[in-house]
Amino acid sequence: MLTWWLARAEERLPPGADWLTAAERRYAGSMRYSKRRTDFLLNRWTLKLAVSRVLGWPDDNAALARIEARPAADGAPELFVDGQPAGRGVSLTDRAGSAACLVAGEPAATGCDLELVEPRSDAFVRDYLTGPERDLVTAAGPARDIAANLIWSAKESALKVLRTGLRRDTRSVEVTVADLTPPERAWSPLQVCTVEGAVFGGWWRRSGSFVLTACASGDFPRPTELEPVSPLDEVSPSHHWLHRPLA
Q1: pTM for the full model?
Q2: Which of the two residues, 208 and 197, has the higher pLDDT score?
Q3: CB 123, CB 132: distance < 8 Å
Q4: pLDDT, tens digit, 9 for 90 and up, residues 133-174
Q5: CB–CB of 124/181 below 8 Å?
Q6: Any bridge partners for residue 101, and if so which?
Q7: How confident is the prediction for the chain on average, in pLDDT?
Q8: Span between the terminal Cα atoms of the chain, in Å
Q9: Which of 98, 128, 181, 219 has the fewest CB atoms within 10 Å distance of its CB?
Q10: Which overall architecture, per CATH, does domain 1-105 show?
Q11: Are 149 and 115 in contact (CB under 8 A)?
Q12: Which of 72, 79, 21, 23 is nearest to 54 (CA)?
């Protein structure tokens, strides 16, 4: 299954609302808190740009307004184009003022997740990771923060594939990764297994202060970038994000 990915930072959000659908404009206007509204707009803008490029469309407002992600009953985004189901899997993620979108070439379940590479407490590792995952974090040495956030991110991606999110116990999926220090800005393989025996292929990418993961069911070659250089490789999280309390 072919997939494509794109990321954006909130500093690049376009002015105005002509690139939104009427429903999206109403929803954004109803949001009380500006941070939640900005996150919503950033997610939607990133998705619209990614889908328009996959379809070979221009990035202008008229084209972007034809693309919409609607939440399914379980909360997962479903892609619509011109008001009709598009028959493509999509996944959205945002963190620390940046967002990423994964677009599939078919209507398959996909998941992506973006995390900062930041310290995670021993309690976090103990409560949310399996025994083998905890061993991997412990053995990682200087790469401990990479390991802990990579494993957590891959779990979140896999739970999106399962369409449960964090309603499901994070220890019911287990992440395996062979190399914690591959070259930055290059996709490296990982694998996620569920307690029921399902196996998901996955990929991860270190981009500056971020780690980005992607998972999907079935055959899953590495995601294809929609631009030669990602904004994730260029942006730095703000002081606000780097100094907030950590789990």
Answers
A1: 0.92
A2: 197
A3: no
A4: 999 999 999 999 999 999 999 999 999 999 998 899 999 999
A5: no
A6: 6, 92
A7: 92
A8: 35
A9: 219
A10: Alpha-Beta Complex (3.90)
A11: yes
A12: 79
